[in-house]
From TrEMBL, chain A:
<dbReference type="InterPro" id="IPR043970">
    <property type="entry name" value="FUZ/MON1/HPS1_longin_3"/>
</dbReference>
<dbReference type="GO" id="GO:0016192">
    <property type="term" value="P:vesicle-mediated transport"/>
</dbReference>
<dbReference type="GO" id="GO:0006623">
    <property type="term" value="P:protein targeting to vacuole"/>
</dbReference>
<protein>
    <recommendedName>
        <fullName>Vacuolar fusion protein MON1 homolog</fullName>
    </recommendedName>
</protein>
<feature type="domain" description="FUZ/MON1/HPS1 second Longin">
    <location>
        <begin position="367"/>
        <end position="458"/>
    </location>
</feature>
<dbReference type="Pfam" id="PF19036">
    <property type="entry name" value="Fuz_longin_1"/>
</dbReference>
<feature type="domain" description="FUZ/MON1/HPS1 third Longin">
    <location>
        <begin position="527"/>
        <end position="626"/>
    </location>
</feature>
<dbReference type="Pfam" id="PF19037">
    <property type="entry name" value="Fuz_longin_2"/>
</dbReference>
<comment type="similarity">
    <text>Belongs to the MON1/SAND family.</text>
</comment>
Automatic annotation (TrEMBL), chain B:
<dbReference type="GO" id="GO:0015031">
    <property type="term" value="P:protein transport"/>
</dbReference>
<protein>
    <submittedName>
        <fullName>Ras-related protein Rab7</fullName>
    </submittedName>
</protein>
<dbReference type="GO" id="GO:0003924">
    <property type="term" value="F:GTPase activity"/>
</dbReference>
<keyword id="KW-0449">Lipoprotein</keyword>
<keyword id="KW-0472">Membrane</keyword>
<keyword id="KW-0813">Transport</keyword>
<dbReference type="GO" id="GO:0012505">
    <property type="term" value="C:endomembrane system"/>
</dbReference>
<dbReference type="GO" id="GO:0005774">
    <property type="term" value="C:vacuolar membrane"/>
</dbReference>
<keyword id="KW-0488">Methylation</keyword>
Length: 640, 206
């Protein structure tokens, strides 16, 4: 049943660390944050040497970095081994270095075997999965089996919990990669009983507040706004005090905490976080939070404050806690929140075309935008005339719709504002769910268009049913998109043959037991674990499905944060930056930015640099080969 | 779900340093009193939930510092206040004389929509001191000033003994509420396509 999924045990358990203050005995003995992102565009060797030396002196940045992540997962890092590996690398990265080539599978797999032997202290559950994978698939290397023995003796009670969690997540995440069970955790505000005097409240890793310029609370992620009125007043006092000196406070660092301020006229937004996310990322999240508020109310609220500074906005936002909570949650799993790009549900070209055609058909008649979405992914979208839709608006709109229960139960007609389109005024959104995941949004400027839009929807629905779009959508949800294990060996020769398709080689995908299989294996070639490809001209991105060893939500979140940092460092305003290759104890991260695309890839920490570069080229080629299935082409919302 | 609308009222306490602003607030919120004087730095904030005529609302009490060096906190502090409480010490003439300045200052900084009718409440504190023998500002004098300023409600209090504090804050809440009744409909515009929406996002600015 739909409503029950909200309270599924797995979804709540995955949240444990966040909720339970005791589960996180803050990892104080962490000397100095962090392998600094250091510079980009340097010779890679220089970067690597730096990284190696930094990782010698400081242990495990990420153990403390990650929000809601438990501690003690990493008991010391394979620093020595890393160094050795680094020593043997000497390639230059750079655009000339990145050339197409045919992968040498032999080298790749042997390096993988080596790596699993060397990294003893990596997260136990991951490697255990990994081991099982080996056992099923291929003979174990001696070092790996030695590791297995060690594992058995070292895993303690806590780790067992991890394993449970992990097990649940594998099942849930399987279908949908990025999304998985994340989305199902949406609910109203949690921990409403807390206030700033509660120990648990103080231990939360990431707070978000919205308040008015008179210090009246509007929203708090945790705790009751009214009980937090004093705290809210304090925040206002700080902001105003600085403003009084004709200045602006942007960031305050206090120990492990960053306090980020964003002033939007009479609305103040504050994030207090000890997640060590970059300032730019946190600020971007506040911008989105503000955008979400504008989506619900428009910027006309400012007028209320002009007329009446004591205006209390909370009543206008009644019942929207879940919208903000789910947006804030998406800051830790949805790359769209920092990439400012949207993602499409992978579909056969013809299927997407069919959906696009019918949307296009009805879009003329007083409809400004028509979007067919599956969860947070776009199936197709169409804009009338010159109207354009910003990816952030898509994100905020889909978040609003998916987190408001009432849209699911009946067709709705609701005023909404697209902050990037026109922050001052409302549009009207007709929303209808075709099934649990798939919904149609028709945006119009006319407040009395409900019946017209209802008719349009009926037309669209019948076409979608006739052309099997809805069942294809469900199939895509099960199959997922790009699986790194499927990375073609030689994309060039392949491109010559019949056009490549996603999913096709994955014949096993149709029977229910296959999800287990999907997580067998050790990632893609050359230790490729995951990638995100963002097409700049399309404003879209595609993210590979998660697979081993990025199985658990915890792992995925850590990788997400790593990408987020990588993105921030590539867009730090000192650019343009073209490439970055980083190695730390968790990953090798490779970023490649061109005029056309940005590629973010994560590899095994011991991955060979030259091979990693080659694999990245293959990924880019692969994306090109299947672009008409993973992207919405020709109908770029900006080309109208 | 019953959406019981809760209200939040911002209450600002002003007055010379040492007249007992913090003590009054502490007595009211925590029912505690301390003879030790600790100067407030900048401002203190406390909240209290109050029931009034079967409505529950929250008082957000801004206890400001009386010292002049903190007066630069200015506009921001006063902005959006629902009620302003002026406190003086009945044993110190100067603190009473300054009420006028405090009131003026508040009206300038907060610039409320209707300054004539903005809800103030005046408290004459420390009536317990020396059994009332050291008192220098008479009840009559205070009331006269209050009525000259548009009938500001007046209370004589003792933060130490908790005398009249509850009643004073009840009145503060009541007055603040009275002025908060005008509720407008929230009606933003709708996008006008014919007029040509100029807003065009230019793709990604990253």
């Amino acid at each position: 049943m739909p409503s029950n999924s909200n309270s599924s045990p797995s979804s709540s358990s995955s949240d444990n660390d966040d909720r339970n203050p005791n589960s996180n005995p803050d990892p104080s003995p962490n000397p100095k944050p962090n392998v600094k992102p250091v510079s980009i565009d340097q010779s890679l060797d220089a970067i690597e040497n730096q990284l190696a030396s930094i990782s010698m002196s400081s242990r495990s940045p990420t153990a403390t970095v990650d929000d809601e992540e438990e501690v003690g997962e990493e008991e010391g890092q394979p620093v020595e081994q890393l160094k050795i590996t680094n020593g043997s690398l000497s390639e230059e990265i750079g655009e000339e270095g990145v050339t197409d080539s045919i992968e040498d599978e032999h080298i790749a797999s042997s390096s993988m075997a080596e790596s699993s032997g060397v990294i003893k202290e990596s997260p136990p559950f991951v490697w255990r999965n990994n081991l099982e994978a080996h056992e099923v698939e291929r003979p174990l290397s001696p070092s790996s089996s030695g590791y297995a023995g060690e594992m058995g003796s070292t895993s303690g009670g806590d780790e067992i919990i991890d394993d449970d969690e992990d097990g649940n997540e594998i099942r849930e995440v399987g279908n949908d990669g990025v999304l998985g069970s994340h989305e199902q955790r949406i609910s109203g505000k949690r921990h409403r009983d807390e206030d700033d005097a509660s120990v648990s409240w103080r231990k939360r890793k990431k707070h978000f507040f919205i308040l008015s310029h008179s210090g009246k609370p509007i929203y708090s992620r945790y705790g009751d706004e009214h009980k937090l009125a004093g705290f809210s007043a304090t925040l206002q006092a700080i902001i105003s005090f600085v403003e009084n000196g004709r200045d602006r406070v942007k960031l305050v660092r206090a120990g492990k905490h960053q306090v980020v301020f964003l002033v939007k006229g009479p609305i103040y937004l504050v994030c207090i976080s000890c997640t060590e996310e970059p300032y730019e990322s946190l600020r971007g999240q506040l911008e989105l939070l503000y955008g979400q508020m504008i989506l619900i109310l428009t910027k006309s609220v400012n007028r209320c404050f002009e007329k009446n500074p004591k205006f209390d906005m909370t009543s206008l936002l009644g019942g929207t806690d879940a919208v903000f909570s789910s947006l804030i949650h998406s800051f830790s799993w949805n790359p769209a929140t920092f990439l400012h790009a949207y993602s499409c549900l992978p579909l056969a070209y013809a299927t997407r075309q069919a959906a696009g055609a019918i949307l296009h058909d009805i879009a003329g008649s007083g409809i400004l935008f028509a979007l067919l979405m599956c969860k947070h992914k776009v199936i197709s979208l169409v804009g009338a005339q010159k109207a354009s839709l910003h990816p952030d608006d898509i994100l905020l709109l889909s978040n609003f719709i998916m987190s408001s229960e009432s849209f699911r139960t009946s067709e709705s007609f609701s005023p909404i504002c697209l902050p990037r389109f026109n922050p001052m005024a409302f549009l009207y959104a007709y929303v209808h769910y075709f099934d649990m995941d798939t919904y149609l949004v028709l945006l119009t400027t006319s407040s009395d268009a409900f019946y017209h839009l209802k008719d349009s929807r009926i037309r669209i629905e019948s076409v979608l049913l006739k052309s099997n779009v809805l069942s294809e959508v469900q199939r895509s949800l099960v199959d997922g998109g790009m699986h790194i294990e499927d990375l073609p060996v030689d994309p060039i020769s392949r491109a010559g043959t019949v056009s490549s398709h996603l999913g096709q080689p994955r014949a096993a995908t149709d029977f229910p037991g296959r999800l287990g299989d999907a997580f067998v294996g050790i990632g893609g070639p050359a230790g490729l674990w995951h990638f995100i490809y963002r097409s700049i001209s399309l404003d879209q991105y595609v993210s590979s499905e998660f697979s081993s060893p990025i199985n658990s939500l915890k792992q995925q979140k850590r990788l997400y944060r790593a990408y987020q940092r990588l993105y921030a460092s590539m867009h730090d305003g000192n650019g343009p930056h073209k490439t970055q290759f980083r190695r730390d104890e968790n990953y090798v991260l490779l970023c490649w930015v061109t005029q056309d695309f940005e590629l973010y890839a994560a590899f095994d920490p011991l991955a060979d640099k030259a091979l990693a570069i080659k694999v990245c080229n293959r990924v880019c080629q692969w994306v090109k080969d299947v672009e008409n299935e993973i992207f919405l082409l020709g109908a770029s919302p900006f080309s109208w | 779900m019953a959406s019981r609308r809760r209200m939040l009222l911002k209450v600002i306490i002003l007055g010379d340093s040492g007249v007992g602003k913090t003590s009054l607030m502490n007595q009211y919120v925590n029912r505690k009193f301390s003879n030790q004087y600790k100067a407030t730095i900048g401002a203190d904030f406390l909240t209290k939930e109050v029931q009034f005529e079967d409505r529950i609302f929250t008082l957000q009490i801004w206890d400001t510092a009386g010292q002049e060096r903190f007066q630069s906190l200015g506009v921001a502090f006063y902005r959006g206040a629902d009620c302003c409480v002026l406190v003086y010490d009945v044993n110190v003439t100067k603190s009473f004389d300054n009420l006028n300045n405090w009131r003026e200052e508040f009206l300038i900084q907060a610039s409320p929509a209707d300054p004539e009718n903005f809800p103030f409440v005046v408290l004459g504190n420390k009536i317990d001191v020396d059994g009332g023998n050291s008192r220098v500002v008479s009840d009559k004098k205070a009331k006269a000033w209050c009525s000259s300023k548009g009938n500001i409600p007046y209370f004589e209090t003792s933060a130490k003994e908790g005398f009249n504090v509850e009643a004073a804050f009840q009145c503060i809440a009541k007055n603040a509420l009275k002025h908060d009744s005008e509720e407008e409909l929230y009606l933003p515009d709708t996008v006008d396509v014919v007029g040509g929406q100029q807003q065009r996002s230019t793709g990604c600015e990253c």
